[in-house]
Amino acid sequence: MKKNFICSVCGYVHEGDAAPAICPICGVPAEKFTEQLVEVFEDGEMGKLAAATGLSAEVLAKADSIVAKYPQARSATLPLIHLAQENLGYVSEAAMKWIAAKLEIEPINVYEVVTFYPMFRLEPIGKRHIKICRTLPCALRGSYKTMEAFEKEFGVRRGHTTADGNVTVDFVECIACCGTGPVVQVDNKLYEEVTEEKVPALAQKIRESLNDPDYGKKDPDFKNRAEWLG
Ligand code: FES
């Protein structure tokens, strides 16, 4: 076990047997620090935790290079959560335990970050992730109707995944194409002006894409509006 003292004002972490007289970042006195006991894992145990995540050796090596960029390892919490989600499709319990052990923080510290941000997921995602912008400009142009049309097409409620695991439908906030709403992003592929009438055709395209491993990965040709809009 390792002892940390955390500044309750700025979050600075001090390692050692006692809190510092004053916080070197925000200057508050020692009474403002809270003590935290953190489990420290040996290399063998860390290896087991890493293996349980299912992340590749390449991704694990990338995690090392991310952590090395920060003066305090715990500052890498958010980047490592992103890394896990990018590679697993969601942030699994095993990934949270591994991140916590790697950064010498408690799993609850990772869990509270994951559950704070709506873009992180605690459950596996469908093969295709349909994200419909619901911020005001898109909402005014009918994105709620677009959502209802997708729910009807795939027989699934917003925020959920179809029973066959193929499609997840979610509302998201602005994805920076506000002039051509309602905007829909499928994986990394952008579709604009997706009114409810256009949803059946797009849903069909999404169904046809299920066996295409490259769908959404190719950069669109921005000079070709038809290709850009999918
Ligand atoms: S409001 Fe929908 S993309 Fe900005």
Describe this structure in words.
With 230 residues, the protein is of the alpha+beta class. It has three domains: 2-38, Rubrerythrin, domain 2; 43-116, Arc Repressor Mutant, subunit A, CATH 1.10.10; 128-228, Glutaredoxin (3-Layer(aba) Sandwich). 38% of the residues lie in helices and 15% in strands. It is built from nine helices and eight strands. It has helices spanning 43-53, 57-67, 77-88, 93-103, 107-116, 136-140, 143-154, 199-209, 225-228, and strands at 2-7, 13-15, 33-38, 128-133, 160-161, 167-172, 184-186, 189-191. It has a five-stranded mixed β-sheet, covered by helices on one side. Strand 7 and strand 8 form a beta hairpin. The chain is elongated. The site of FE2/S2 (inorganic) cluster has 11 residues, from helix 6.
CATH topology-level fold name of the largest domain: Glutaredoxin
Helix content: 25-40%
**Coarse morphology:** elongated
Number of domains: 3
SS content category: alpha+beta
Order of helices and strands: EEEHHHHHEHHEEEEHH
Mean pLDDT: 90
Which small-molecule species are bound to the chains here? FE2/S2 (inorganic) cluster
Radius of gyration: 22 Å
